[in-house]
Structures
1.
Amino acid sequence: MARNNAILNNSPAFRNSGGYAPAPEYNQAPATQQQWGQPQQQWGQPQQQWGQPQQQAPGYQAPQPQQAGYSPADLEAMYNRPAATGFDTGRMTWRNTMNAITATFGVIIAVAFVIMMLPTVTALVMGTEEGRQIGFAFASIAAIVGAIGSFVTVLVNAFKKTPSMWVTLAYAVFEGLLLGGISLFFETVYPGIVLQAVIGTLAVAGSITVLFRMGKLRTSPKLTKMFLIAFGAYFVFTLVNLVLVLLGVTNLRTGMLGVVIGLVAVALASYSLVMDLEVIRNGVDSGAPKAYAWTAALGLAVTVVWMYTEILRILAILRDS
């Protein structure tokens, strides 16, 4: 993330090399010998009066010059202004980052809820069991569209030079479609499992966030290297298992092996969440542009959704055992 604030760099107050506003200059008349009551003359200009040719009574005070073209009222108004916020400076703050995170998760949850309610709504509208099946079909199509769309939006965000709020919100919509379809399937087979998975995800993610803010959890180069190796192994295992499932050979994500793999995945997602929180903290501390708050929200959403799906799988395996 950028460390320089473009708003401040373009400000007129920082255009000179010193970084400060230029010092005021005063027009001062040279000292000349004159009789009391005689008009002053400027240097090199005979008979040119300084100010107005009038007598000055004892105790007369010359008017104070204005500083840098500002009147005393302007300076007083500047001093009374409140401190600049992240909105004023265009910098990334905890506040605008939390707003982006809230909006992203709000869209995901709202879209997922709509998809999960499709069978119920279609059954009520059509009044038959066939309507419920149509709702399931729509939810399945929505999950496929969501899987493709979320993958594309993540790639777009990765290669996009400038962070975009619309890319993050588009990802939230697609992720909601995918998450709603998956949750509907598991909820149909294992009633009540979605609520359990949501509670488990909130417990794990909430605990990690609290411990991070307390300074108890931090990343390290060694742990990050171990995380990358473990994540690579997990990714290869997932691809192999997907091929075996599509070929109808077997499913390795069952039984105790499935539980162990799921626990490893939750641990990886937990460390990824710590990494995301550190990225957000570094962005806020370094004064990154506030648009990066949406990138942080997208990364956090990917991690939390991953954690939720893994907890959902673990609960499903335990239900079957």
2.
Amino acid sequence: MIEIRNLSKSFVTAEGPVEALKNVNLTVNDGDIYGIIGMSGAGKSTLVRCINMLERPTEGNVLLDGRDLGSLGKKEMQEVRRTVTMIFQSFNLLMQSNCLENVMFPLKLAHMAKAQAEERARELLATVGLPDKAKAYPAQLSGGQQQRVAIARALATNPRVLLCDEATSALDPKTTQSILELIRQINQDTGITVIVITHQMSVVQEICNRVAILENGRVVEEGEVSRVFSRPQAAATRALVFPGMAEGQTSSGYGQLVRLIFDGSVTTQKPLIASMAMDCGIAANILGASTRTVGKKEYGYMMIEIPGGPDELARAMKYISNVPHVTAQAEVEYAAKEAVE
């Protein structure tokens, strides 16, 4: 278990002091794939570097199974970093060494016998799908292949925690998908804890079970991914989950605004808005939407306008409240503010 307690980090720059992290508190359980997400400058990379003490916190503690990493000496931290490894956006491979040598490098530092290290490295290259690239050099590989080698190298010392700092940001969508599938499979096969630093909500959605949202160095929301996606509370979270939904969107003047949030509702041949029109006589106007279908289930949001006044709005809210996995949030004071399954 990783516990981050009251962690703050400040830097002194030419323009003055900068508070990169402010009183961060998080718990990452063993076996989690935990996402930490935020816009550029939110403090994500600083946080992950504090977890393995590449950056020393200004205040607060990072505990690994109750052991305060900030209290450890240089030699003890070297041992910890064999169990808490990291992959980066830029891969950070040794360009003058072939793939086999890259994966063997941390084993060499750990003084493993050469024959044993080579056997382990070949096993890991097979694990990441590159058994035939042992003698190839990084420059001969695609970006996705280089990241696979970096993952193999990070796994060489049998770590308990894998830190991924924007590990897919430099990759195209198809390659990103394959790398995320690989990380998820490794998590399932080994039970390794994974912390994913990203600015892409799609990455969190794809593989994480829990997520924390950072804004200006603070955690503004944290919880299970399904809950955060379906009912985002903080403005920063809503901007990440529903980037196309304007906070200040207004009615045309002919009705009331209602935000629908789809949290795994089953798709049918009779869509919700059409059903409401036929069953209730309420012809809602769709003002904007961002939804996605995954395995015949809908996720995302829709902003609609309910024509009429309070009576029509109340009927619409009641109708929507009976639809499984759909939340309706009315943008008016006199209506029931939320109707949940």
3.
Amino acid sequence: MTTQASFTGSPFLSLHLLETLVAVLPVRDENGSPKSIVYGGAERHLITSQARRRAERVHARDRANEGVGALAGRTTGIRTREWALITARALVSEHGWDKDEAVTTARAVVEATGLKFGDPGKKTVANLTKVLLFAPSDAGTRIAAHIAENAEDLRTWTASYLAAQAASAKPKRGKKATPPAEAEAESAEGPVKSASLPALPPATRTAVLVALAPRDAIDIALYGRFLAEIADSPNVDGAVQSSHAFTVHEAEQLDDFYAAADDAKLDRKRNALDFLDSADDAGAGMTGYQSLISGTFYRHAVLDRRKLRRNLEAAGMTAQEAEETAVAAEAEFVNAFVDAFPEAKKNSTASTGTLPALVLAFEGARPYNYAAAFQRPIDESPVAGEAEGRESGRKPKGGEGPAGPAAVKRLIRHHVFVSDRRDDIKTGRVLTYDPHIDDLLDELKDLGATKVPSIEELTA
């Protein structure tokens, strides 16, 4: 029986979150400016899903590695271009290889598997793959163990591989190609009769592919990976869908002018003997501008529970193992969705200390995105005649007031409206870290969900 047939719960967990950020810059474009979109006829600040997903993935990975949370002690992945260097470090530290030989061998093995590397003439990229590869964190250790176990054969293969590579290298501009006879004579291992590179031994290629395969890395099953360079290395369609976060109101940006002090200059000025010496040290050490944004953001993510279980089974788990791991992965995913935050300018803005004003979680037969609730931007101008409106029963005129409470009202109203028309939506839960919002939830007649006091209770 397949996991899809045996899984009887609601297949999708939808998460919706509102958070208010003040004077931060968690993501920026190539010019260092805040990212934005136009929605509902108004420009909105944007925090991309890529920035959010990495923050969530790293948050869950770090907790697992520290023995904290539902995934404590489980395998996670690393996305990097440094797999050859990671493998080389393992060869040196665990198997006693010479550093230069370890780097050369590891690079040749990984390259012969199908990954392309940077320009060998540039030290900064020579041993880095051209693409980022998301693989289990122990992949380098596994590859190093295989290389060490087959050291004699792979040293011989590496020498022939490098010789053939040198013989087939294109001549630099302005230089004549080396005649074939001379190229053969220059080879350290004897004549190279063909420009084609010797194939990696099949057992080694298999070992590398197994090491780089998703295996039991939980975050790969959650977020997926795509690797076009190696056709027989499995890609993974992730179980998590993430939307871009955007402000529920029109964007407002501050171009903050800053002046950085030069400590040594100020010390000289403070100890100057006369005003002429003091004048020489006038002025700031450095000045400039930085863009900062503020606002209440809506963001959304959804977990495909069936896809997660299929990914785990495809990685080699039994149905029972996949079920147990999926439950733990869901709990940690929800934790990361609530707690994780992109770390750009975290020291200068303390942005990572932000807590959401509201989290809404519910299950359904399909994903539900509530971005439409904020197509009309929230007008934060004061609500005119609010007291009179309550007494008369008439709708008050003016704006909606502060964006945080107004967005909560809109989101809850939208959810209740949709829930009344969709029979599959169930087990809704809401969590807030804002006492004002908590009072507001108590005032609302229908939440379409149950208030819970902790992240753990957001998911079943």
